[in-house]
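Input record (Table S2, row 328):
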Amino acid sequence: MSAKPRVFVSRVIPDAGLSVLEKHTSPAIWPHDRAPTRDELIRGCKDAEALVCLLTEKVDGEVLTAAPTVRIVANVAVGFDNLDVAAGTRAGVVMTNTPGVLDDTTADLAFALLLCTARRLAEGDRLMRTGTWGGWGIMQLLGHDVHHATLGIVGFGRIGRGVARRAVGFDMKVLYSDEFPAPPEVERELRATRVPFDELLAKSDFITLHTPLLPGTKHLINAQTLGKMKPTACLINTSRGPVIDEAALVVALRSGTIAAAGLDVYEHEPKLSPGLVELENVVLLPHIGSASYATRGKMAEMAANNVVAFFEGKAPPNALNPEVLTRA
Ligand code: DGY
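Output record ((2R)-2,3-dihydroxypropanoic acid complex):
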């Protein structure tokens, strides 16, 4: 490379990624501990040839038109519903994500959230912190057993399978629903059975969501599908918030349509739907599925490597629209 390409990085990212960018490019880093507004993002991209962004930045046709020098957008996330990839393709801009490196970390979090929700750990913690615990009680904080229960996994990709792998250790019965069946050896190893979605809803004690946000998965969980679940069911979401109709979930949790929910993601992040925080039977986490030191480092490094590969004239390994690269 001759002159180092200018890269706008929309937040301070882990050193593993920054050091790669600093070595091979000329990065300008958004210094604040908050997402840039749309205008700030566009201003940051002025004269930049690449954008390294997070899932909090919506990069659509309007942003790309306002930032015509940007040739690659590297998302530091596997989910890319914040990127308008079709607009990128039209504008000749390559877009990349970070698949693979966060699967186990996110599966760990999903399982932790499942346990926390089932056994009411957050409520117990609140009891202790508020000094309101009066001592051991035989009827106190009774929850749901995880071992031997039926787990329904919606979306049986890498993360969904990671959760199934953890469920094996708890002797759970695993059902999954996915457009595509997993190979028989994977089903055998994970003791997982593919069932129609409605059957999964009706039979599962725990339902965990691992589907990307697509037009077809928006509000997949709604008043109607919640109504098909067991009244004792716990719903876990570590995928994307809009997969659940959050207002309908509040009603379902309030009325006992289902027993509990554990959420790491929200329909209108960072805002929560009215009524959610008042409910005791929901565990709320701040979108930390991939938040381990090691994994966030790998994600940042992967995003940086995509940018470097592009400017070295190679195909970025995680291009979402590789067809842009083959165009003259
Ligand atoms: C992702 O990568 O899509 C997660 O939601 C954040 O790590």
